[in-house]
């Protein structure tokens, strides 16, 4: 099933996707339509162009492959399924994600993985091939965020305030040093074999999706970042300097 | 509760908007901004910027749209182009009397518009090409631009029902209540061409939205389109009003225009320095900078502390020969920039760029507080039309 999104409003486009016969749906000429595949289950979407904000919001089991860049809030509050973006993504990617996986080939904007959470078998995963902006994993409560820093100019492929307010989950940062403003509320260690084993399925998936070299990726150091439970947040809004 | 409260307020405002203007009521926005620039000064038809902003239709709500075009009046490039809204003919007579006393009016006309159902209740919209009367200018002991700026402020504060909303040379602002694509067609922007364009689609959240309150806001050749909400408005306003500016519209964006006019024209700051005042880095970020840069950033934050703009924003500053895009330091609004040969693009959403330029050489998202400046290449006047 092929849909031409040219000049289609997001409402009409989503209706066409929902009503499309069969599992496989290809959408061409996306240009700014919001909420594509929101809450959708049981479909395999392949998108071309530039879809609008909140691509795959509340996604509930479908898979989305985008050939192009995504805008803001990809996979907002996503529940299950997979979103693969062969390009870059905007701010708040994986916002409040509660399940499923997002793979981004390039960079993501600010606040990726903000307030990601997990519960029992629901463990969201966000893999960023390039660099992430500031506030990566802000208020993260669960799930896994991996930033690979491929083709990134920065020595540490993440902006300021990484993991601010983080109290659950884990961030893997592929870098030779930690962010200069690394928070005292967080713990870090260089990844050991067991840590890497835990993310190997995610790395293999990333490499097969975007044709990257797994050996080159694992040849460099990963930092594993978790909240420091011995130094919890006691005063959230008063001055903590 | 908050949402419910605002919802009720919104209905109230819709009902009463015919009596209330900006600042008399507060509604808590999405907005859209877009900009196109030719580094070689090649002329871009106004229909391009209209097409770009229209993709982001759903970011606005029909209560404001506007455009600024640079290089659009080559035949009058040495004259200040005043675009004026009048509530009635009395306001027009009073304003024209003032203009005649202070300026040589080279040409005046109604701004050509097209009646369309989507745009209603328009004021009288006039355009004047003027130059200060030499004796008035010399008697004032002001430089020419300061003289013009003061005259604009005087009209906007002292002549009821008259509002000069555009006052630069070889540039013009076109704005109205309506969706931006309708505003573009109302002002017949496809009949203009310029080397630089900015656009705004408005979703007023704090105020009801009226013609004067639409973006861009302009003073001389500086114009601002803004997506966001300024929480430092009153601190900023009090500072600029010390220097003769008057915030007549009671809408937050207006003050940003005056801040840039003050910092760049009056204080002689560079665009980068002005950006570091408006979106100053955190003290913790400044501490980590090399000594010379640290000293400079500390100086700017201390001297112009009242001009730090807080709250979410993405803005495009238009000026003669260039554009500057800037996000707030926390990057609470979306913005991407892109290049294709001599064209430079800025937009709230990538789709607004792709619709007019599907293939790009480069596209990226600038960091919060990081100004992106594009200017005409050396020797490109943008006036070859």
UniProtKB/TrEMBL annotation, chain A:
InterPro entries on file: Glu_synth_asu_C, Glu_synth_asu_C_sf, Glu_synth_lsu_3
Domain of life, per lineage: Bacteria
Glutamate synthase alpha subunit C-terminal domain span: 23-177
Molecular function GO terms recorded: oxidoreductase activity
Name of the protein in question: Glutamate synthase
Organism: Hydrogeniiclostridium mannosilyticum
Automatic annotation (TrEMBL), chain B:
Gene3D superfamilies found in the cross-reference section: Glutamine Phosphoribosylpyrophosphate, subunit 1, domain 1
Active-site residues, record numbering mapped to chain: 31
Matches recorded under InterPro entries: GATase_2_dom, Glu_synth_lsu_1, Ntn_hydrolases_N
Residues spanning the signal sequence: none
Domain (Glutamine amidotransferase type-2): residue spans on this chain: 31-377
Name of the protein: Glutamine amidotransferase type-2 domain-containing protein
Species this chain originates from: Hydrogeniiclostridium mannosilyticum
């Amino acid at each position: 099933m092929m849909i031409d999104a040219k000049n289609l409003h997001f409402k009409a486009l989503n209706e066409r996707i929902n009503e499309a016969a069969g599992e496989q749906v290809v959408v061409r000429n996306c240009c700014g339509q919001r909420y594509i595949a929101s809450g959708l289950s049981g479909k395999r979407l392949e998108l071309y162009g530039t879809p609008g904000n909140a691509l795959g919001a509340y996604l509930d089991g479908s898979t989305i492959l985008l050939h192009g860049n995504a805008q803001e809030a990809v996979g907002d509050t996503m529940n299950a399924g997979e979103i693969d973006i062969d390009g870059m993504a905007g701010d708040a990617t994986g916002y409040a994600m509660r399940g499923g996986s997002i793979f981004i080939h390039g960079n993501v904007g600010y606040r990726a993985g903000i307030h990601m959470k997990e519960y029992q078998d629901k463990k969201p995963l966000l893999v960023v091939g390039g660099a992430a902006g500031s506030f990566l994993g802000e208020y993260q409560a669960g799930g896994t965020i991996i930033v690979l820093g491929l083709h990134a100019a920065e020595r540490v492929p993440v902006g300021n305030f990484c993991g601010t307010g983080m109290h659950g989950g884990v961030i893997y940062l592929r870098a030779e040093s930690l962010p200069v403003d690394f928070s005292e509320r967080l713990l870090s260690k260089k990844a050991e074999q067991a840590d890497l084993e835990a993310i190997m399925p995610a790395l293999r998936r990333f490499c097969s999706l975007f044709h990257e070299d797994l050996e080159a990726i694992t040849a460099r150091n990963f930092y594993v970042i978790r909240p420091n439970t011995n130094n919890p947040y006691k005063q959230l809004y008063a001055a903590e300097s | 509760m908050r949402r419910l409260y605002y919802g009720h307020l919104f209905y109230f405002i819709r009902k009463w908007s015919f009596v209330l203007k900006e600042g008399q009521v507060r509604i808590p926005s999405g907005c859209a901004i877009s900009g196109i620039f030719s580094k070689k000064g090649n002329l871009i038809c106004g229909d391009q910027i209209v097409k770009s902003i229209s993709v982001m239709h759903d970011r606005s709500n029909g209560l404001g749209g506007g455009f600024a075009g640079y290089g659009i009046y080559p035949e009058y490039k040495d004259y200040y182009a005043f675009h004026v809204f009048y509530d009635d003919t009395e306001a027009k007579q009073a304003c024209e009397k003032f203009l005649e006393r202070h300026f040589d009016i080279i040409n005046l006309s109604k701004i050509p518009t097209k009646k369309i159902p989507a745009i209603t209740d328009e004021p009288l919209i006039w355009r004047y090409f003027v130059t200060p009367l030499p004796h008035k200018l010399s008697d004032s002991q002001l430089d020419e631009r300061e003289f013009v700026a003061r005259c604009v402020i005087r009209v906007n504060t002292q002549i009821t029902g008259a509002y000069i909303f555009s006052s630069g040379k070889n540039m013009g602002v076109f704005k109205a209540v309506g969706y931006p694509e309708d505003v573009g067609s109302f002002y017949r922007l496809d009949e203009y061409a310029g080397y630089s364009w900015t656009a705004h689609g408005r979703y007023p959240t704090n105020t009801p939205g009226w013609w004067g309150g639409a973006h861009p806001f302009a003073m001389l050749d500086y114009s601002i389109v803004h997506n966001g909400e300024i929480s430092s408005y009153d601190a900023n306003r009090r500072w600029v009003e010390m220097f003769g500016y008057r915030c007549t519209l009671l809408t937050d964006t207006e003050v940003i225009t005056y801040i840039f006019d003050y910092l760049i024209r009056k204080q002689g700051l560079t665009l980068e320095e002005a950006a570091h005042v408006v979106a100053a880095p955190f003290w913790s970020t400044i501490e980590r900078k090399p000594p010379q840069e640290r000293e400079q950033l500390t100086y700017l934050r201390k001297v112009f502390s009242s001009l730090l703009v807080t709250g979410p924003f993405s803005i495009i500053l238009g000026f003669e020969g260039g554009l500057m895009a800037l996000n707030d330091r926390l990057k609470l609004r979306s913005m991407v920039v892109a290049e294709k040969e001599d064209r430079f693009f800025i937009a709230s959403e990538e789709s607004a760029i792709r619709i007019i330029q599907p293939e790009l050489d480069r596209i990226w998202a600038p960091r919060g507080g990081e100004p992106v400046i594009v200017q005409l290449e050396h020797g490109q006047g943008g006036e070859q039309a």
